[in-house]
Records
---
Amino acid sequence: MNSDKGADVDRRIAAPPTMSVLAAEALRSMILSGELLPGDRLPENSLTAQLGVSRSPLREAMSVLEQEGLIVQAPRRGAIVAPLTAHDIYEIYTLREQLEELAIRLGVPVAEEARLDRLREAFARLEAATGDDQTEHTRLAFEFHLALVGLAGHRRLEESFRSLSLQMQLCMAMNRRARAGLETMKEDAARHRPLLDLALAGDRDGLLVALRNHGQRTFLLYAEEHVDGHSPESRAWFAEVRAQLEGSEAS
Amino acid sequence: MNSDKGADVDRRIAAPPTMSVLAAEALRSMILSGELLPGDRLPENSLTAQLGVSRSPLREAMSVLEQEGLIVQAPRRGAIVAPLTAHDIYEIYTLREQLEELAIRLGVPVAEEARLDRLREAFARLEAATGDDQTEHTRLAFEFHLALVGLAGHRRLEESFRSLSLQMQLCMAMNRRARAGLETMKEDAARHRPLLDLALAGDRDGLLVALRNHGQRTFLLYAEEHVDGHSPESRAWFAEVRAQLEGSEAS
DNA sequence: CGACGGCATACTGTCTACAGAACACAGACC
DNA sequence: GGTCTGTGTTCTGTAGACAGTATGCCGTCG
């Protein structure tokens, strides 16, 4: 009779989405698709008109997106799409990598078979994506990594990772027009298959190694040229990445 | 003339706090002081009456606290103080420890002298706390650790760490009445001094080792008995913690 | 010609009101 | 006696209005 406390009943039918959620999704896709660029202002009035919701749900949606790191709000000065500096990219990348590693260490080999299903499905969707919508394809790739992190069954870890992944998508959206078609989608799906296989085999160390070489480091160098705002840390880190890349190319 | 874009001017005079911020602070302290316990419902009407603000700023405050992990909201069902299971404690502790370690690896030795000032000040405040307000003392200890993590100059890392620290304070608030005066404040301040010294000396490895033995693991075992909701992962992890503790006691 | 000051405008912070959903209780039925 | 159903209440989701603040423009003064 599963008399839960009400907070976490496992719903069979999805709850009707609230306007706030719909507004958040719409805004998020506007940002991640590159329709809105970092630094763009987000006046509430025009957005309510554009999205067809009132200010209350819109403000709630903006608060969600702020938590996700996609927008920043200044008191009495409104919200803008989060501007990205080189230091931000350094932060996003280092933290995200670390979280992914922790997730693998905690979660592989996998405790519950069901979590692997999610990973399989995410890969299937990534493989099946045929259209040439680059934004959607990027999203699916991130969804796969999210499922990978989900293997640990660690809600907070997964949530942090998701937030950082979104910010990374924002970073890519910013540069998309310039780097269109950097790699084809089939190549990208193929690049992810080994990760799936290693996870299914429960090979923790193999997975850790594979992930270290999986990151799209070429993208990073590309991104560096399109932003400013270096910090001492980020400058050193980018230099290191560059060195590693050249080393691996030489070999 | 420092013509910033408006988003991040470094203000000399503090911006007048908004009602939302005040409400968030009030709510947070109500939760962390143990006045509200995990699972308690938070109806908007009674809270607006209690805090003297309208529903809009209150809702925004609740959204902030949800992001901090102190409360959880269910659509159309309102908010409750975040209930903590053993699995939650496992999540909070593992992730927090990992973030702290990453911060030290990235941030020590320290790049900018000014960051050390913050750490010194945090320690001074911790040492100077004489009153017997346990909640406040706990807060100051966490503030010290936050400053330690802040050495890395990694905003996102620090923010995640802060959120997890708040949740840990919630966990402690839950058990406070039972474990009152588990250790005196002077002892606690003394326990933190080596961390400060190691950070000032720029001794990264020494700091990492010290931190590994610094965590209040006895508290964890105590907490375990006051919650339910174990997962396979959390059960194994708690067992490991217990084993380590007994091992170190024996030696 | 450049800088300062005042004014108009746009935008956000907050409040109140209304509609619909979740919940609790009481009565009816098996 | 227990379970189910209907109804009333409580609470949340959303909308819209008002007030105060930030911003940009224009005219004036040095």
---
Amino acid sequence: MQACYAGAMKRSDNKSHCPINFSLETFGDTWSLLIIRDIVYFGKKTYGEFLESEEGISSNILASRLVHLERKGILVKEPHESDKRKEIYLLSEKGLDVIPILLEMAGWGAKYDPETDAPQNWIAIVNADRERMTGLIRETVQNGGSIFTGPNSVVSKLAIT
Amino acid sequence: MQACYAGAMKRSDNKSHCPINFSLETFGDTWSLLIIRDIVYFGKKTYGEFLESEEGISSNILASRLVHLERKGILVKEPHESDKRKEIYLLSEKGLDVIPILLEMAGWGAKYDPETDAPQNWIAIVNADRERMTGLIRETVQNGGSIFTGPNSVVSKLAIT
DNA sequence: CATTTTTACTTTTGTAATGCAAGTTAAATT
DNA sequence: AATTTAACTTGCATTACAAAAGTAAAAATG
């Protein structure tokens, strides 16, 4: 039940102290930001939920990324209250601070992918008041909610159709 | 003299139309954002300059990433005016729109790397007025300047010590 | 309460990406 | 004319990733 697969993660040996490089070394691989996205946008919290991501991450890679993100202090792992098989992964403060990066990347992708899945009214709202939305999303996620999913979602609070 | 090494780039086959995934497929590999950083922060423009990056990219990988970024419309390649051996790589509009993402990542890295190279007054200025600084950086880079390097650098315009 | 299912991983193995060193070609410099 | 520079390319070893199957503990089911 313990994750002992350390995984490799090249370029984790601090090639420089450029802050952008530091960020990339922490969550700049292929999957880390997608895992964080699943938490922030869709309220996912367990291994099984992450495994079902749209992009199809492999189980071994997912395990290695969760270990990596936990080690880097982005994620915190706790046992599930009632179901002792489950582990709950939550964003730490450090992890919550990645949200602004996600929002910028979502804005860029929504602008340039002609077939984007992003709801344009959502993108517009975020662009209109980035700071306020960042705060609202942060609080929501901190309380176990997410942007799109669940009863306490950000979009339901804002009554976005 | 022509780059025919296409490179591979896994996950370039549009696994989803999530805007974050789209961004990651475009510039979410290990090196692309560091190349864009070199342009935006240090005014680099040629293959040789990118090759000298602090993090030490391999020549074949650099070539493949430049091709990739050009194909995705992030970079534009033009011949050097006077020296016909050189190629100049510039950011397109689409590439300039990546700047806000870089700023967020720089902010995060500067906050969490205790040994960061980032000048704290620079980070503070960006955090104080993100929108204005984004515009100023964008214009500067569009005119061939950069944040830290060169006579028309953003920091020299702002007279940051 | 024995069996099946679920959950969170690990292990194995093939494939693809990366990294390093050396090589190539055209243009510029000496 | 010879050397150096710039922008790549090539070959090969190493590493990371992906897919599939396997494992162990806890929970649900009959």
